[in-house]
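[Q] Does anyone have a clean structure-token version of this?
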Amino acid sequence: VQLQASGGGLVQSGGSLRLSCVASGITSNYYAIGWFRQAPGKEREGVSCISGRDKNTYYADFVKGRFAISRDNAKNTLYLQMNSLKPEDTAVYYCAADRTTWPGVRCGMVVRSEIGRDMGSWGKGTQVTVSS
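[A] Here you go.
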């Protein structure tokens, strides 16, 4: 699986950005794919995830109501729409995917930040900077 993220940038507090991640090589529905972020000096944390099996979406508490994850299968692209951005959202954002029999369980672990870096495939990060 290869992942290529893009769409980061500089935005003012309250603004919006949409991240994209082109995913190639995913050939079944038994996968979890989502977004992580890492701010300077902090641990990498899970942000949002989507289950390939049932298309359920999962969010970390700190982004619920502000971010929305989606996937366009025709374009093999994962999106993260980020609204009402805050300075504390500043981080490098990564997309990651993992082949798993239980993608819903895996996604739950992602958004509770119980995964660490234990996902099968990672894309290069894209920087998001939110100014106050």
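[Q] Thanks! Anything notable?
[A] The first strand starts at residue 2 and ends at 6.
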